[in-house]
Amino acid sequence: YTDIKPLGDKVLVKTKTAVEKTDGGILVPTTAQTKPQGGEVVATGEGKTVEKNKVDISVKIGTQIVYSKYAGTELEFNGSKHLILKDDDIVGIFETDDAKELKPLNDRVLIKVAKAEEKTVGGLLLTKVTKDKPSIGTVIAVGPGPLDEEGNRKPLSLAPGSIVMYSNYTGIDFKGKDGYNYLALRVSDVMAVLS
């Protein structure tokens, strides 16, 4: 085959290659390489119809995206690895290479993770292993919301600046250029707004 045309609400993404060397130049064995979760959109379907409303794909060809870890179907095409996935499996758009600039899509939010405690109340320093993974952060950006039964966007109830508690071990982690950790997750994984 010489061309792939995704159907409906599917997109074809040319995936990024796995990191084979560390920044210091050390080779990473294939068993330790992490599967890439981003790439460039190279083809899109025509969208989908909900009730009588046509809903377009949320990304355009050439857009750099991040997608859910176990989303889509992998394939080899034109000598490169690609992935066909649903529009809803796209977490967000990267317009720059800084994590805090991620533009969440659909029902996703971007959270700046609170820093983990460095010491106990008694003053003992905590090692990386003993630090609790924080589950509190500040909402940086929100997606346009999920589609309702008629194909219209339903705005999210969260706003940037909200301090929230979220479920552990959800979403996609990013390291920002500012040294903070960021997390993109579904709004349904946010458990509470703190005030």
Write up what this structure looks like.
25% of the residues are buried. This protein is flat. The protein has strands at residues 10-15, 38-44, 48-50, 53-55, 64-67, 73-77, 80-86, 90-93, 103-104, 108-113, 136-142, 163-166, 172-175, 181-186, 190-194. The strands form 3 sheets. A 7-stranded antiparallel β-sheet has the order 6-7-1-2-5-8-9, with no helix packed on it. With 195 residues, the protein is an all-beta fold.
Q: Which ranges are low-confidence, i.e. pLDDT below 50, for 5 or more consecutive residues?
A: none
| Approximate strand percentage | 35-45%
Sheet with the most strands?
7 strands, antiparallel
Helix content: under 10%
Write the SSE topology:
Elements: E1 10-15, E2 38-44, E3 48-50, E4 53-55, E5 64-67, E6 73-77, E7 80-86, E8 90-93, E9 103-104, E10 108-113, E11 136-142, E12 163-166, E13 172-175, E14 181-186, E15 190-194
Antiparallel strand pairs: 1-2, 1-7, 2-5, 3-4, 5-8, 6-7, 8-9, 10-11, 10-14, 11-12, 12-15, 13-14
